[in-house]
Amino acid sequence: MKLILITILAAVISSNAKKLEEKYSWKELEYAWPSEEAKQEAIKSGRYIESHNLPLGLEVWKDKMFITVPRWKAGVASSLNYFVMSNDKSPVLHPYPSWEANELPEENHNKEHENYGGGRTDAKAAEKGENLLEKDSGKIISTFRIRADECDRLWVMDSGLADILGSPKQWAPNNIAIYDLNTDKLIKRFIIPEDQVKEDSFFANIIVDTQASDCSNAFAYLPDLGSYAVVVYDFKNDKSYRVKHNFFHFDPLQGDLTVGGVNFQWTDGVFGMALGKPINEHGDRTVYFHALASTKEFSVSNTVLKNETFATSSDAYHAYSLLGDRGSKSQSTAEFYDDKTDVIFYTQINRDAIGCWNIKKPYTPENQGLVDSDSHTLVFPNDLKVDNEGNLFVLSDRMPLFIYSSLQPEYNYRILTGKTSEIVTGTPCE
C-alpha cells in the first residue's frame, strides 16, 4: 500500500509539473529589410533564399533576443540578428549590428548543394575568398553560437565560412568579434592564429568566463568539435592557445543518431560547455563539458584552462574528471547552468527533449530529469540559455532534415520557454 501511495504521489507531482511553452515560431525566417525593393532584389540575385535560412543559436540580453543563422547554404540574408521580445508570434529579424556588417559581396549563388559530412567541413575544401576583415573589421560572415556576458558585451564566434554545404568559401579567418551591447560598437576583433586551426577544425560554440567586478579579466573557451580540442582566448593579454585532452574526443559508440525519422552518423567531439558559479572572489569555478557524439559528462576547473603553461602540458591530464553517464540516447548539443536552481539544463537531440541535472547530486542516469519531450515542437533542440530572471529559452530547428532531407512548409523553427524553478518540479533535479 505504501508503494502504491508513493507511485500515485509521484504521478500527481509529475502531472503538475510545468512544461515548456512555445513562445515564437517560424515557417521561414523573415528579415527587417530596408525596403520591399531591397528584399525583391536580394531574392532575384540569390542573396536571399528563404528556405536556406535556418536559426541555430540564441542569446538573451535585456529585452533583446539574438538569433544566429549560419551560412550553411547560399542565400542567407544575415548571420547575426536580433529582435525585441514581444507578443509577436513570428518576429522579423534585424541584422546586428547592421545590414552592411552582414552582407557578402554579390556572387553566383545558384550552385548545387552537397550533404553535410558530420558536423564540420574540410578546411582544405573551402575556396579562399578575399579577406573581408582586411577591408571592414565590422564584418560578420557566419556564426553559430554567441554569448552575452555580465559586462554587457556580446561575444561572437565567427567561422568566416560561407556556403558550407555547397561550395565552401572562406571569406575570413576564424575570429572572435566582441560588441558593446549598449552602443552596438565593435570593441575588439581577435583572429585565431593559423597554427591553432587544424585541417578538420570547426568552431561552433563560445563560452565566456568573466565577472562584472573585473571585466578586463575575461576568457573565452572555444570548443573545436572537429579536431577535438579547446582554444582558450585571454582577453586581457589578447592571445589564445590550444588545449588538448582525451576527454574532448567523441565516443565511437555514440555517433549514430536518428532525428525526425532521419538516421545519420556524426563524429563531433567537445561541443557543449557550461560554467558553474564562482566559488571565491578570484572567479574560480567548474567548467562542465561533453562531446556531441557522447553520453558522458566531464569537468575541469577554470583555473586549469586559464593557466596556459599548465593547461598545454601533459601534467594537466589528471586535472580533468569524468562525472558520469547520462544514459542511452542522451547525446546533447548544448548545456547551460542556472545558478538559481543549481541545475544544468541540456538538450537531448535523440529524444526530442530537454534534460536536467542538479549539480549537488551524483551524475547517474537516475539523477537525470526530463523537463520536456515533444516529437513535434522539440525536434532537434539545438541551443538553450537561461536569462538573468531564471527563464529557460530553447531553440529547436529540425536541422538534420534541413541538411539530409527537406523541411516541410510548416512551422519548423521554434523558441520555447519556461521558468527554471517551475519546470524542474517533479523531476530528480528539483
Write a compact overview of the structure shown.
The chain is built from 8 helices and 29 strands. It has helices at 2-16, 36-45, 99-102, 132-135, 302-305, 308-311, 399-404, 420-423; strands at residues 21-26, 58-61, 64-68, 80-84, 94-95, 127-128, 143-148, 153-158, 161-162, 169-170, 175-180, 185-191, 207-211, 214-224, 229-234, 239-244, 256-259, 262-265, 270-275, 286-291, 296-301, 321-325, 335-338, 343-348, 353-358, 368-373, 381-386, 391-396, 413-419.
Layout: helices, strands, pairs:
Elements: H1 2-16, E1 21-26, H2 36-45, E2 58-61, E3 64-68, E4 80-84, E5 94-95, H3 99-102, E6 127-128, H4 132-135, E7 143-148, E8 153-158, E9 161-162, E10 169-170, E11 175-180, E12 185-191, E13 207-211, E14 214-224, E15 229-234, E16 239-244, E17 256-259, E18 262-265, E19 270-275, E20 286-291, E21 296-301, H5 302-305, H6 308-311, E22 321-325, E23 335-338, E24 343-348, E25 353-358, E26 368-373, E27 381-386, E28 391-396, H7 399-404, E29 413-419, H8 420-423
Parallel strand pairs: 6-10
Antiparallel strand pairs: 1-29, 2-3, 3-4, 4-5, 7-8, 8-11, 9-10, 11-12, 13-14, 14-15, 15-16, 17-18, 19-20, 20-21, 21-22, 23-24, 24-25, 25-26, 27-28, 28-29
